[in-house]
Structures are given as structure tokens and as C-alpha cells.
Specification:
The chain is 85% helix and 0% strand. By secondary structure, the protein is mainly alpha-helical. The mean pLDDT is 76.
Length: 123
């Protein structure tokens, strides 16, 4: 009976945990959507001019802002990828080639030492 009660309590607590996480997710989505609305209103209210001095239409403003955001996103992704590669310490192709060359030299040196050792054992 005690094992069944413990399992029920664990199941209940894990269910409550997932429900809490889900509500946090919904709150975060709500927050982001409200923030998005504010940003869209800000973009629409701003007056932006094209190269001829004419005010841009809403769609043009959205396209311009989208290009700016894409640029920022690309930069952030690039930074994160660089950090990731540094973190996992991926060796570059040149480093791999250099290590292979060192390994070949070490193999040749070992072979030479073995030959000398064999020669000494024969005497």
C-alpha cells in the first residue's frame, strides 16, 4: 500500500510540475505577444522616409524592420555558433592534419627505435 501511495504522490507532483511549467509558457507567450503589439504600434506610428523623401507605407516599414531584425538575428546566431564551437573545442582541419603528421613522425621514430633495439638484442 505504501508503494502505491508513493507512486500516486510522485505522479501527482510531476503532473503539477508540468502544469506549472505549461502556465509559465502561456504567460511568456502572452508577454511576448503584448510586446509584439507594442512594437507594431511603434513601427506604424513612426514616420520613416524613403530616398525620395516620401513617407513609407506600412508594408514597406514592416519589410524594413524585418530586414533589420534578420540582420540582428544573423549576428546573434553567428556569435552563439562561435561560442558553441569554442566550448566544445572542435579542432580545425589544419590542426587535424598537423596531428596526423606528428603521429606519422612518431610512428617512424618508434620503428627506428625498435630496429635499433632488435639490432642490440641480436648482438
Amino acid at each position: 500500500m505504501k508503494t502505491k501511495t508513493i507512486l500516486e504522490l510522485l505522479t501527482l507532483s510531476s503532473s503539477m510540475y508540468f502544469l506549472a511549467k505549461e502556465s509559465e509558457l502561456f504567460e511568456r507567450i502572452k508577454e511576448l505577444s503584448e510586446k509584439g503589439k507594442d512594437e507594431i504600434n511603434k513601427i506604424v506610428s513612426e514616420s520613416q522616409l524613403d530616398e525620395n523623401g516620401n513617407e513609407l507605407e506600412f508594408v514597406d516599414k514592416v519589410i524594413l524592420k524585418t530586414h533589420e531584425l534578420k540582420k540582428e538575428l544573423d549576428e546573434k546566431i553567428e556569435e552563439l555558433v562561435i561560442k558553441f564551437y569554442k566550448k566544445i573545442n572542435i579542432a580545425h582541419l589544419d590542426e587535424i592534419k598537423a596531428l596526423n603528421e606528428k603521429l606519422e613522425k612518431a610512428d617512424m621514430a618508434i620503428a627506428l627505435l625498435e630496429a635499433r633495439l632488435n639490432k642490440l638484442e641480436v648482438k
